[in-house]
Amino acid sequence: MAAINLPRVIRIGGGALAELPAAMMQCGVERPFVVTDAFLVGSGLVARMAEILDAAGMRATIFAETVPDPTVAVVELALEALRAAECDCVIGFGGGSPIDTAKAIAALAVDPRPVQSMKAPATTDVPGLPIIAVPTTAGTGSEATKFTIVTDEATSEKMLCAGLAFLPTVAIVDFELTMGKPARLTADTGIDSLTHAIEAYVSKKANAFSDALAISAMKLIAPNIRTACAEPGNRAAREAMMVGAHHAGIAFSNASVALVHGMSRPVGAFFHVPHGLSNAMLLPAVTAFSAPAALSRYADCARAMGVASADEGDQSAVARLLEELAALNADLSVPSPRSHGISEARWFEVVPEMARQALASGSPGNNPRVPEASEIERLYAEVYG
To answer: For the chain, which domains are there?
Structure first.
C-alpha cells in the first residue's frame, strides 16, 4: 500500500502562468506574498507575473531577498515580512531556493517554532498557508513535493524538512519560463531531475504509482537534456525537460530519494555547490556502488533512458547506464570537486562530518545498498577527483 500526495491544482503547459489567478481563485486566496530572487526581478519575469495578478485584482507583496541554499536567517527575514504584509497565501516563484523558502515560511506562519525543529526525522503535517509554486527551472520538481531544504548557517547543515505542510496547494508548470536559461543552469537542473527519477525508482519506498512517473521522467529527460543545453530556444526540448522534472518531483515525493541526495546536501552546505551540480558530481559513483543491490531496477533505468534495449540482459544494461552517466557528465562539463576549486585539505577535513550529516538525513536508508559511514567517506574520496 502506498499513500500518494499531490498538489490540489496543477496547471501545466506553455502559457500556464496566465492561469495563476484562476488557480488561486479555485483555492479561495487573493493576497499573495511572492518569494523570489533579485535575478528574476531583474529579468522582468516577476513584473510579468505581477501584471497578471494585478489584472485580476490581486495585489502581490514581493520578497526578493532569497539566496541560493536558503538559510535560517533568510527564512526568518521572509517570515517577518510575510507577517507584516497580512497575506493569505505564499507564491514561490523561481528555482529551488525561492520555492524552498516559500514552503518554510508558509508552514511557520501557522506553526511558529524554530526552523531546526522541523528537520528530519521530524514530520510537519500541520497545514500552513496555501503554497503556490511556480518553477522557473526544470529541475527541482519542488512544485510537487512535500519537502523543503533550509541551511543552518550555525552548523553548516542542509536540513531536510518533510511533511504535508510543505506540499504546494497549486503548481503552475510553464516551460516557457525556462526558455533561454544558460547551459550550466540547464545542465545542473536537468541532472538533478534525472537523479530524482532514478533514485525514486530504486528507492526502498518505491511503489507502482511512483514507478510509472519515474520511468516517464527518465524517458523525457534523457533524450532531451543535451539538446536543451545546446539549443536554449528549443521549445520541444524545454517542454520535455519541464514535464520530466515535474514527473520526477511527484515520483520522489511519493517514494523518497536515496544516497545521492543524502551525500549531496552536505556538499552544498559546506562548499556552496549548486544542488544539481553536486548531485551530478556524485551520481555516477553512487550508482556504481548501489547497482549490485538492485540490478534489475537500474537496468530498467537504462532501458527507460534509451541506452539499453528491451531484450538486453540486466548486467549489460547497467554497464551501459554507468557509461551513459559518465558520458553525460563529460558532455555537460560537470567538474569534479577538485576541478571546481574545492581545497583538497578542506574537503577531506569535513568528509567525516559530511558522512554523518548524510546518514542523519535518513535518505541513505532508502538506498538499495544502505551504506556505513566509512563507505560514504570512501565515496566522497572517490568523487573528489
So the answer is: 9-178 (3.40.50.1970), 183-384 (1.20.1090.10)
pLDDT along the chain (385 residues), means of 10: 94 98 96 97 96 96 94 96 95 96 97 92 94 96 96 90 97 96 95 97 98 98 98 97 98 96 95 94 98 98 97 97 98 97 98 96 96 98 97
Closest by alpha carbon to 153, among 269, 75, 43?
269
Please report, for residues 112, 191, 231, 251, 286, the alpha-carbon distance to residue 264 in angstroms, rounded to integers and kept in the order given: 29, 13, 28, 19, 11
> Where do runs of H (alpha helix) occur along 169-234?
183-202, 208-221, 225-230
SS3 109: helix
Cell 521522467, located at residue: 217
Distance CA 365, CA 90 (A): 32
134: Cβ contacts below 8 Å, ≥ 6 apart: 17, 20, 49, 91, 92, 93, 94, 143, 171, 172, 174, 177
Amino acid (1-letter code) at residue 63: F
**C-beta of residue 28 within 8 angstroms of C-beta of residue 189:** no
pLDDT at 69: 87
Q: Which amino acid is at 191?
A: I
pTM confidence score? 0.96
Distance (Å) of CA 300 to CA 247, 276, 286: 17, 23, 17
